[in-house]
């Protein structure tokens, strides 16, 4: 696990061979192998960002988070 700043998280977009990471409530999740996140994008959202407020508007809310690998903390 790693502690990443927002600037460091922004490098993990799922593009150019990078994994796709998103942060929610300070926890960073790996969405690289999640089908809907193919290419680092999902419903207009882009990997490499803090999506804490965005997930509250999603139909699934936070129910998908326990299924995702945790890779670190957002600092």
From TrEMBL:
Domain of life of the native organism: Bacteria
Protein name: Cytochrome b5 heme-binding domain-containing protein
Ranges of residues in domain Cytochrome b5 heme-binding: 4-75
Pfam family name, one: Cyt-b5
Annotated source species: Lacticaseibacillus nasuensis JCM 17158
SMART domains: Cyt-b5
InterPro entries: Cyt_B5-like_heme/steroid-bd, Cyt_B5-like_heme/steroid_sf
């Amino acid at each position: 696990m790693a502690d990443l700043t927002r600037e460091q998280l922004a490098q993990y977009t799922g593009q150019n061979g990078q994994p796709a990471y998103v942060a929610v409530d300070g926890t960073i999740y790996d969405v690289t192998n999640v089908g809907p996140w193919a290419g680092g994008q999902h419903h207009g959202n882009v990997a490499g960002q803090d999506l804490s407020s965005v997930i509250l508007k999603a139909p699934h809310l936070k129910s998908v988070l326990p299924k995702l690998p945790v890779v670190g903390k957002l600092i």
